[in-house]
Every structure is written in structure tokens, then in C-alpha cells.
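Hello support,

Our group uses your service weekly, and this is the first time we've seen a run hang past the timeout. The protein is Transposase. I'm not sure whether the cause is the sequence or the server load. Input pasted verbatim:
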Amino acid sequence: MEILETIGIDISKKVIDMHLYKRDIHQQFENNTKGFKQMVKWLEKNNDVPRENLMFAMEHTGIYCYNLSLFLSKEGFNYVIIPGLEIKQSMGMTRGKNDKADAKRIALYAYEKRYRLKRHVQSSESIVKLKRLFSLRERMVKQRAGYKMSLKEQSEILLRKDNKLLLKTQEVLIKCLTKEINIIEKEIESIVTEDDNLRSQFELIITIKGVGKQTALYMIVFTEGFKKFDCWRKFASYCGIAPFPNTSGSSVRGKTKVSHLANKKLKSLLDLCAKSSIQYNEEMKLYYKKRIELGKNKMSTINIIRNKILARIFAVINRKSPYVNLMKYAA
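Update from on-call engineer: The timeout came from a worker crash unrelated to the input. Re-ran successfully.
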């Protein structure tokens, strides 16, 4: 299937700006079902390229692009959702910004990269629900941590009899947030349990020593049921644990290091898994001690263990069988 025309779409809360690359024409529509239908009619009038040779391209704008992506998926259009940073870095030196210009730049980027871009596959309903619940849970956990810290500091300095309302209000908020977080976690477990595929993946991942329930759930959500990434090395790069060289010519000889462009939440979870494995997994403990005795860097060794754990997670999913600890069978 050859892509002959690209349509760049800049999405805001109320409207979408659309630009046809080859025809170099622009039009604006409402960001709702009525607007989407008008968009299709306008496209049929102003474009002679068959539907299968068209590609819509839009910047990832979270909930604002969700309804449009659902509509395009149902109508059978090819479309891609591109990270904003990827488009921004492809622009080079630019001056000024508006929605019309952004739609044109997205269309240009999609046309130049049309042979490399892969058609977006709509996530399952369970994955979409899990993503939203995890996002809400993360915000609530941060809010609770903030209240706990301020309450602790104020309790140590202020007299309770003079600040009853101040301290009591924060205590109530902490209890309320804890209760709601527990409800969200139960709902997450319920969604995973009801979906046979997600439940099977979850049970396989937690057979790996050092990998907990939270990490297993986050892995399932961010890989979209292990459909978004076909290789653990690509996912390691996404998590920010894949090392990259830092050299140029004969003068620059920097250290090989990980990139700061990463999913920091997954990186922190894999870091906790690695440290837990060093403590409780005999194989990882021996590996860590051996490298340290050889004078290797501690953080470099921990990062290697992060990658080992990630490779094992993908391995059990691809094999569809639990992890087997071969260490206990060693002579």
C-alpha cells in the first residue's frame, strides 16, 4: 500500500485544523462527530486520491485526539499519532506559530516520512481504561505524598491545640485520597482479571523474581498488551535504560550513557526491580558482586540488571510460559 497524499491535523479542544499536503489547502472543522463527518465530505470534494492511499497525521494531544482517532479507525482511514517532540525537532529553525501553520508542518513531516511511519492501531477498550486509571492514580498518589510531607513538617513545629483545623483537614484529605486510591487499584485489578489476555500476561510477568504487581501492570499498559513494541531493546530505549555512545571524530570520547528522553516512571520501576533482584534473587546477587569485585561501576551494573529483567519480561510473554529459575537446578 503506497501513501500518495498526507493530511496534517492540528487538534485543539474545540476545533481541528486540516491541511492537504499536495493540494496545499487548509480547512477548519469542529472537534466533534459532526465536524468529522463534514471533514470527510470536504475531503471527498477536494481530493482525488483513493482512501487506501491517504494518511492522516496528528500530534498526540491526549484526550483531545481520542474521538478523532476512534472516528478514523471506524471509517477505515490510515492514520498516525506522532509525539509532539518528534515533530518539533524535525522542523529545524522556525519563526512564529499558529494552528494553520502547525497543520501544514505535520502534513509535510508525514509526507517526508510516509514510508517509515506505521499505521496506528487503536488500543483495546481495556487498555484505554487502564491508562486513564493509572494516570488518575499517579496524580492522587503525588497529592497524598504532598499532604503527608506538609503534615509531618507542621506537626513537628506547630502546636496541635492552636492549629487543630489546619492539621485535621490534611489528615482527612490523606484518608480520603488513600480510600479512593484503593478503589482505583481494585478497579484496575478487576479490568485485568476480566480480560483473559491481560490476566495471562500479568501472571507470566510476576513469575520473574524481583518484578512486582505494579511493574507488571505498567508494562502491560505502556506496551498496550505487548503489541506496541516488537522487541525489548526498543522498549529499553523508550524507558531510558538503553546505553548510547557519545563520540565524534577523534576529539570527543564521551562515556556511553543512557538518554534523558525516557518514560521516567517505567525507568524508576525497573530500577526498583533491579535493586530488589540484587537483594533477593541469588543469580542477580552473584552477578552484581562479581562485577563490583572486578571494579565495574555500580550504576552501570544496576542498569545491566534492569535490561536483563526487561529482556526476561518480553521472553516470558513471547514464549507464553512462566520464568524458570535455572539457578536452583545448577550442580
